[in-house]
Amino acid sequence: MTDTPRRILVIKLGALGDVVQALGPFAAIRRHHAGDHVTLLTTQPYAEFLAASPLFDEVWVDERPRALQAGAWLALRRRLRGGGFTRVYDLQTSDRSSFYFQLFRPGARPEWSGIARGCSHPHANPARDLMHTAERQAEQLRMAGIAAVPAPDLGWADADLTPLGLSERFVLLAPGGAAHRPAKRWPARHYADLANLLAARGMTPVLIGTASEAAMLAAVARAAPQAVDLGGRTSLFELAALARRAVAAVGNDTGPMHLTAAAGCASVVLYSHESDPALCAQRGPKVTILRRPDLAALTVEEVAAHLPAA
After folding, report:
1. Cis peptide leading into residue 175 (ω within 30°)
2. Domain 7-143 class?
């Protein structure tokens, strides 16, 4: 007779870079709870992608209720309390996700790994916010009894790229980033110049990004006619497949570059004073970080020096 499987909840709501950096912790939790039922609570943009992984038995979508949406909060509370969870790993560790711990009241609350006040397995390191995300999450799990966290593995994420009609040798360019933090972006004109240089070297520049970045990507494409603009046209599965097959990738400190790095693509990531690679740098077997206080001072030649000559 076997023990009844425990029900485990993992919370990770986003954004893309954070989700990619949680793939190792996800795998560690899955391995630690091999005989248990593991549910992920995430947001809509990542639900289908992570449901296709071998990491979870079930994926729930968090609609992220707003403060005055009482009905939505009650529905979320009922779902959490009805899940029968015996342990929760809060890898979001935000004010929102920590509040979810309180939604289990009154009555017994599950074991909880995170930073929620009164939780059973707190990440009790006052310097946690000064740690890189990877080390912070690994330490959080160690304090909850999970000793080893592997590197992210995206081997399960793939797609047929034939419809895109790309050449065999292409380089991904990710010129976007948070719109409210323009200083994190290398100038679009530099990306256009780099795209033209890559084309002269016999490689196809492929622009990636979200639909919200369409105007900026289109401007780069106009200045670099041989570039292929895939902005807003790729799923996360296709991005992973592109990263696995690309010669290299160049981009700002933005979510897609976390994915290219984790997929094993030779990734050159550009940082300004707006973000600190010591806290959030992309991790992978072939990652180069180039940083300048003002990214406009970083030349195309300096970036191109880290890419194949032909």
Report:
1. no
2. alpha beta
Whole-number pLDDT of residue 1: 37
Amino acid residing at 248: A
Answer for the pair 29, 107: CB distance below 8 angstroms, yes or no.
Answer: no
User: pTM (2 decimals)?
Assistant: 0.95
CATH code matching the domain that covers 162-304, chosen among 3.50.50.60, 3.30.43.10, 3.40.50.2000, 3.90.70.10: 3.40.50.2000
DSSP category for residue 192: H
Burial of residue 248, with CB atoms counted within 10 A of its CB: 0-12 exposed, 13-18 middle, 19 or more buried? buried
Largest Cα–Cα separation, the chain: 68
Q: Buried (b) or exposed (e) across 11-48, using 16+ Cβ within 10 A? A: bbbbebbbbbbbbbbbbbbbebbeebbbbbbbbebbbe
Q: List the beta bridge partners of residue 119.
A: none
Nearest to 240 by CA among 162, 168, 157, 175: 157
Domains 7-143 and 162-304 belong to one CATH topology: yes
Contact between 252 and 184 under an 8 Å Cβ cutoff? The reply is: yes
Residues 6+ apart with CB under 8 A from 169: 202, 203, 204, 247
Distance (Å, rounded) from C-alpha 303 to C-alpha 242? 20
Show the tokens assigned to 282.
């992309």
Q: Give which of 285, 272, 86 is closest to 177, Cα–Cα.
A: 272
- Tokens representing 132 are 């890189």
Domain ranges of the chain: 7-143, 162-304
pLDDT tens by residue, 93-148: 999 999 999 999 998 999 999 999 999 999 999 999 999 999 999 999 999 999 99
Residue 189's CB: how many other CB atoms inside 10 A? Answer: 13
